[in-house]
Amino acid sequence: MAKGITDEILDIVWPETGGQDIRKGVLAYALFADPTRQSPPLPADVWPPGTRFDSSTLTDENWVVIMWTILPSEWPQPDRWCPTLERTLSALSDGEAAVAWCALEGSFEVPPALFDPDGGRDEVYAAYVPGRFACSARLGASYESVSRAEMIEFKEHTRQRFGTDRRQ
After folding, report:
1. Which of 28, 166, 31 has its CA nearest to residue 98?
2. Is 166 or 114 the better-scoring residue by pLDDT?
3. C-alpha span between 118 and 151 (Å, rounded)
4. What's 42's DSSP letter?
5. pLDDT of 167 strictly over 60
6. For the chain, first and last CA: distance in Å?
7. Which contiguous run of DSSP H or E holds residue 39?
């Protein structure tokens, strides 16, 4: 289990430095069934002024994951943290993703492993599908991943939206 204060363990590899620079930030992902899907517009107005974004894609013949690497100029106020993540994931999802989520660096998964509650992973701390948002990690507090019940809920939603025939 990841241990520490949320804002202290949210490391990202900032792409502008060729992967040589670890900084504090957010990794947001959205899974789409259309492998040609392009990134929706980045929600710059959701984050503090001066926040920088990078968009990249991970693809296979049956899916695309759009990843936003977010380097905040400063962290949102703690009471704005979860609403900021929700608006970010909603924008990234763009109404067409099977699911969108935030996770710790180094924890990327796709179906069928995505949201596997038995995988021993605790890296997902926010998840979004239209009408449902979960955010467990709080700034200034001990890091918490989404609950096992939430993992099962998002896994089932992803399976229904995305299908079980899609594989890594």
Report:
1. 31
2. 114
3. 10
4. P
5. no
6. 24
7. none
Q: How far is CA 34 from CA 14, 31, 46, 101, 133, in A?
A: 27, 9, 26, 18, 23
Q: And the tokens for 128?
A: 């979004």
Query: Which residue in this structure is represented by tokens 């703690």?
Result: 78
44 with 68: CB under 8 angstroms?
Answer: no
DSSP 41: P
Joined tokens for residue 66: 């759009």
Residue indicated by tokens 């979860």: 82
> For the chain, how big is the Rg over CA atoms in Å?
15
What is the C-alpha separation between 67 and 18, in angstroms, rounded?
A: 16
Task: State the DSSP string of 63-128.
Answer: EEEEEEEEE-SSPPPHHHHHHHHHHHHHHHHTTT-SEEEEE-TT----TTTTT-TTS----EEEEE
Mean pLDDT score of the chain, rounded to an integer? 90
Give the tens place of pLDDT for each residue, 3-41. 899 999 999 999 876 667 899 999 999 999 999 999 999
Q: Name the token pair of 137.
A: 């990690």
In this structure, are residues 162 and 110 in contact, taking their beta carbons and an 8 Å threshold?
no
